[in-house]
Structure formats: structure tokens, C-alpha cells
Amino acid sequence: SANELKKMEKEERERAIAMHNLYVSFSEMKRVREAIRRGNLWELVEEKSASNPLLMDALDFLREEKIVKWMEKFEPISKPSAFFYTSKFSLYRPIVYRYRKRLMERFVPKSRVKLVPEVEKPYSRHYRGLWKKFDGDVLVLSPFGPVPLALDEIYPIAQSVFPEKVEKDGCMDLLKRFMDKYKITEEEKYLEKGKDVDFERVKAVVDFQFGKGVSEVLLNGKVDIVKSERTEKIRNVYCDGKHVLSMRAHDGLFTLKPAGAKKLMRAYPPLRFRVVVEDEAVPFIKEGKNVFAKFVVDCDPELRPYDECIIVTKSDEYIAVGRCLLNREEMLSFNYGIAVKTREI
């Protein structure tokens, strides 16, 4: 207590205060490390900023587009933890910036849309009948912005938790820009026969995840979609009998298979989708070993942590498919640590 400290000798008091500060500092460091490990550092930052107006000013600085754009390069594609809305700043996180940017750049809607309110996730469970019959895209008005039903299972859309009432000013602004860009109308038109919404989902997620137009390459042929008998969710995608993609249940995104990677390599020049490694690392990678950062020669600057990638030699020969743990800047800067987890040869 304060009285006990006053009774101490000067040196003893200084030591007691120093030990207290040391314990508090270590405790806070442990809390930050744990937040990083669990993938909820943003939630911790927002929680801490709420206790001090000056910290809130600092957090407000992170809303600037040039700052968010830079941070997005280091933001994982998905996380094991859900997206928790904790304050108004939550909608300015890099993961939200990425969703809105990719929606504008990579998702090409049909000429007409139907706008529907939010319901329990996943939205397509409630609106599936409408989705199949409507001759256009069904967009859900969510706090993230307009969400096409074809993208309603991807991270962070389906893996998010919001309070009942959230300001949607940013959503409506994005919707207006989205509809103006593609000259979309809200004309009502329905099909007599239902459309293939599973193929629509596969096509939309491929373009959203890998880039606009990539679905025309990966799905160029006879496409067969394998679904889970228990959940009826998409699990595997075959094109001309070859297994090109597998959909992950936890984040609604795709795992790239070797056959799919080779199709992409034939269609896109280096460095697109690629991580180039030193020749001395090739034999080890072919044995299934991971790629260490010090052996990376170069890689696609558009790759983000946890993105699917193609591991190649310096002469652009296929080695394996894997999952990035770092972006290009980190891979070329680090001299130790795993850069890519090798998945399949």
C-alpha cells in the first residue's frame, strides 16, 4: 500500500516500485504476445485505446487510407479467431479494407441486383431460394458493405460477431460506388428454372481470393463440384477430371491443388502466384520440407500471409504448392524462419 511504501527506506522503496513496474510490464507484454498468437491484437488495441482519449486519437490516425493500405500487406487472409466488433474503429481494420477493395476490384456483378437485409449467418441459408430464382445478384446489406450471397461464407463475413445496431454509413457509401461503377439496376426479374448457385459461389470465391478473371483459367472445362453429404457444403472442385481446388470449412476459401497450380502457371507469367527459391533448397522442398525465408529469391508482391502460392525454381519449374506465412517484404528481409508451409508436391 502507499502507507507501507512511505515507511520504507528510500532504496527499499525504489526497489519495491521498480519490481512492481517490472511485473506490470512483463504482464502486459505477455498479454500482447498472447493476443498476437490468438490473432486478436486489434481487439486488444481497441480495448486499450478506450481508456485514454490520446490513445483514441492515435487509433484514429490508423484510419487513414495510406496507413491501412500499408498494414493490409501484413494482414493474414484469414484467422483462427472470429472478427469481433468492439468499437467504431473495428470497421477500419485492414481485413475490412481488403474486403471492400476486393469487392470493388474483383467481383463483377450481373446487371441487376436485389438488396436484402441482414439475417442470421450464413446468409445464403435463409436466402437460397431467392438466390436460385433471381436473375442477378442478391446483396446483403452488412456492416462490412454489400455482401453477395456467393461470398457470404468467406472470412471475415461468416466468422464475424456484431451487436444488433451498428452504423452502416460506410456500407451505403460503398454500395452506391459499387452500383455506379457497374451501372447496376434493382430491376426485378426471375428465372423459371433455378440457376447453379454452387458454381456461382466457386467462381466468385476464386476471383475474390486469387484475382479477377482467374476463375476463367481454373474453371475452363467441365467442372464437377463435390459437396459434403452431411453439411451439403462445397468441398472439392474438379475441372476435366483433375482436382484443382478444395474449399476449407473454417474460412470458406480455397486450397490450391497441384493440378490447379499448373494451370495457373501456364496462364500467368512469373511472378504471379509464385514464390521463387534457391536451387539448393529444391531437393528438400521436394521431400515435403517447408520453405525458409533465407532461401526465397523473390515472390509475387500481391501474396499475403496465409495466401495459397506456387513454389518454383529460378527457371520457373514447378516444385510444390504451399501456404505463405509471410508477405514478399518479410520473406526477402528475414534470414530465418518459415516463409511458406509446403502442402503438396
What tags apply to this protein structure?
alpha+beta; single chain; Archaeosine Trna-guanine Transglycosylase, Chain: A, domain 4; Nuclear Transport Factor 2, Chain: A; 40% helix; six-stranded mixed sheet
The Cα radius of gyration reads 24 Å
Series of H and E elements: HHHHHEHEHEEEHHHEEEEHEHEEEEHE
* Strand content bin: 15-25%
Q: Uncertain spans, ≥5 residues at pLDDT below 50?
A: none
The N- and C-terminal alpha carbons lie at a distance of 63 Å
Per DSSP, the total helix count is 13
Detailed description of the structure:
The protein has 345 residues and is an alpha+beta fold. Helix content is 40%, strand content 19%. The chain has helices at 2-7, 10-38, 41-49, 53-61, 65-72, 94-106, 123-133, 169-182, 197-210, 214-218, 258-267, 282-286, 328-333, and strands at 83-84, 113-116, 137-142, 145-148, 160-161, 223-227, 234-239, 242-247, 254-256, 274-277, 291-292, 296-299, 308-312, 318-324, 338-344. The longest helix has 29 residues, at 10-38. The radius of gyration is 24 Å and the shape is globular. The model has no long low-confidence stretch (mean pLDDT 91).
